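LOG
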Amino acid sequence: MDGRASADVELIAYHDLEARPSFKLALQVVDERWVLYATRFWEPGIWILDVTEPRRPEIIGVIVATDGPLVATWQVQVAHGLLVGSLEHRPPAWGGDPQHATDEGIVLYDVREPRAPVELGCHRYGASGTHRNFYDGGRYVHATAAVPGHDGNIYSVLDVGDPAAPREVGRWFLASSTSRAARVRTAACRSTDRRMRWGTVATSRTAPPGS
């Protein structure tokens, strides 16, 4: 026994990804080809594999969103030819040094041609990055973002109708997550625009232009 066990499933293929382990996965179908995106764990980057023939997975490309070794690109979502990648400061427990990480936020790619992804735009929050983001097509990306003045991550909604210029249109957070200085600013804003604290947005299934 090699330690593996399964029931009602069969292992049919394995790829060592050039000895660079993967983490999160996303799958799309392009012109009847099945394309798998696999984020690298120990270094920035996203593998692109053709898995149309599942017994013969093939690397067909790689996305390197940053050259900062202290930045993790663990999260990936893809739909309607738009890939949403994340940038976040790698935690010390995983070999990171947040004080010297060089980038953060969300990066958008046109992956209608998987072998030639094109960076379209990015959005930066000004803190340590995003984690556990969600996108299944349409106009909005739902992100969990670290933002200045908050402990931990908050819920943020990005409008990606123009992928070259994504913009935040809503956010939600617990009052207890704010720092003391941020609570003063939030209280001042709340009297003029409650949406700055309790953001709401109507979602749409309409795909971004060009998707």
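LOG (cont.) second protein
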Amino acid sequence: MLPSSGPRKYDEGAKLNVACVTWGKNETGFLRFWFRYYASLFGESHCYIIDHNSKEQRPEDVLGPTQANIVRIPMEKARDHKAGDPYEFDRVRFRFLSQFSRSLLNYYDVVIYNDTDEIYFPDPGKYENLKAYLQAPHTQRCRAGVGVEPFHDFEAGEADFDFSGSLFAQRPNFIYRMHHSKPMILRKGLALGGHGVNEPFELDANLYLLHLKYVDKKSMEERQDFLHGLYQNKTVTGQTRWRFDREQIVEQLKGYAALPEGGGPCHVAEFEKLLSPTEFPEVFLVNTRPAYYPYFELTKSLPNGSMRDLGQRRFRFDSSFAQSGV
């Protein structure tokens, strides 16, 4: 993990063309939230939804009349399907997404990819919104945000999540999940993996990757039933969270709420300790492995008591997040 070189410059007059891409199957609330967020920033017609053969909840039924670009894949298995290949689902999916994003970059300056339960959100104390954030040129051609998970503290009386309402007003608590620091803001066609890319990327301390899986207990349970079914029929294997059943995933959610409180966001101070004691480069370079899973690169050299321990406490977004309206 090395500091990136070069000054951070801003070109406020430049107009960037930004494409926003997601992939899903039978998605409802999370897709509506993802679409509302990105369409409000970049326009409906610049949102691309890859629909993997939805049957019960097709995107056009969930979103209603829309200018979004819906690309339907009307089959379950890949053309080169091989029975017993435990990695086929993600291997084929990210091969498709790598080629699709590379093609879009013939027309767009930036392509953003998220799962439907993720959004990128910049520090509201420094940027008006993600659109303003992207005006800052990237030293590298790919950028990541710090992974965090807002969560539903249902045992403390938090109501069910309203997907048409404000995220931060409803869910002020979060935990750090550094393995969700996904580098999926692209200005160059790259080979994408589940949580990484095949080249070094910039991790920006002023950018968050918000993983929303745990913001609503009811929706989480229903979605987990579907995902766990895919795991049981061996559509997906490995150490994915899809391997957990409903009861196990609820126990994880309870565990988040039971963590000791750690105050407000503190990763910037932790990063500063690890890098330069005199000058903290808020954007720094992360080298990746062929497995495209940057979490190990982020943590392998960190001392105990540093970022490794951020996931052992719960934190609260400060008031500027709720005031953002997101």
